[in-house]
Amino acid sequence: MCGLLLLIITGPRVMMFLWYIVNPRRWENAFDSVIVPVFGFLFFPWTTLMFVTVSPHGNVDGNDWLWLGLAFLVDCFSAFGSLRNRNQMPGYAR
Asked: Which domain holds residue 43?
């Protein structure tokens, strides 16, 4: 369980870092400024990765919106999904 949580939390961020090292031009083409990828790195890593995947030139159209929506849902579920189960943890004060 901890390994899966670690992969969900760090997996996209490590992939973002490695992808930027290997192909920085794609990241520069996808984003106009540095603020958006940094914000995405901190709060929406799956959505940021999907944006770079589906729009190498910064344009999103057609089914790309579906993929971005799914990535956003994954980000939301990974961030807020643990709030519901925290009362099952031993030592949790209600």
From this structure: 2-80
